[in-house]
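Quick note —
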Amino acid sequence: MEADNDAIEIAEQKRAALAYLTEAWDEAIAEGIEPDILAHAALFTALADLIDTYGEDAVADLTESLPGRVKRGEFTLQRTIQ
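Predicted structure written out below.
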């Protein structure tokens, strides 16, 4: 049961984090920051934080999996299904 509660707590924190980031993203766009510039800054910030937490080797391993995940649509918000 404790594992289920931990999983629920993590899911709630992920939803809250995404809500905060989405709000900040929208505010930055409204201030005139180009989306691709904002995306690069967000990626840099995320990777730098992950490296601080897990180290360069672990983050390098994580980023090696990204091309496949991108191609599978894991990060695509609006999918067209044919």
